[in-house]
Write a structure and sequence with these properties.
Length: about 160
């Protein structure tokens, strides 16, 4: 097992669109293990492969308090969506930045596990928000893209300053 390096905004590699996983091999299992290790260590409730510079449609999530409910989400698609909610979001690629983002409240998700087995999941609340946040990463999109240009620039400066210190 190995800790992976997390890319920070505005790294252009975070803008890469991830590819579908077609070959469910040992490497995918190793990657998800390392993603969980990295995500728990950060600590974060979700991690997209994009953030560790692997451009495949792979997400790890665990929103449980005890960190004992790991969820692997590969090749996700949203089948149904309902409602709207605004939640303060954070991102491991933008440390220390928290801003409200509007998302669907409930989603019905179709995805594959690390063995390639298909499953469906009805989610709402934080899990739903987290899945939508991670799916954006796979498209090269970040939560600050929903904010105004002015706010995004302010955040860019704040992060650059924090990095220098
Ligand atoms: O750890 C994380 N917390 C979080 C809080 C609210 C909405 C989304 C998230 S995901 C984030 C980890 C991360 O950056 N995943 O890409
Ligand atoms: Ni994120």
């Amino acid at each position: 097992m190995a800790l992976l390096n997390i890319l920070n905004f505005p790294d252009p590699r975070l803008r890469t669109k991830a590819k579908q996983v077609t070959d469910f091999n040992k490497k995918i299992c190793e990657l998800t293990d390392n993603m969980f290790l990295t995500m728990y260590a950060a600590p974060g409730i979700g991690l997209a492969a994009t953030q560790v510079n692997v451009h495949q449609r792979i997400i790890t999530i665990d929103i449980s308090e005890e960190k004992n409910q790991p969820l692997v989400v590969i090749n996700p698609t949203i089948l149904e969506k309902e409602g709207e909610q605004a939640t303060d979001e954070g991102c491991l690629s933008l440390p220390g930045i928290y801003e409200p983002v509007k998302r669907y409240d409930k989603i019905r998700l179709k995805a594959q596990d690390k063995h390639g087995k298909f499953y469906e999941l009805d989610t709402e609340g934080l899990l739903s928000v987290c899945i939508q946040h991670e799916m954006d990463h796979l498209e090269g999109k970040l939560f600050v893209d929903y904010l105004s240009e002015m706010k995004r620039n302010r955040i860019r400066k704040k992060l650059a300053k924090a990095l220098k210190a």
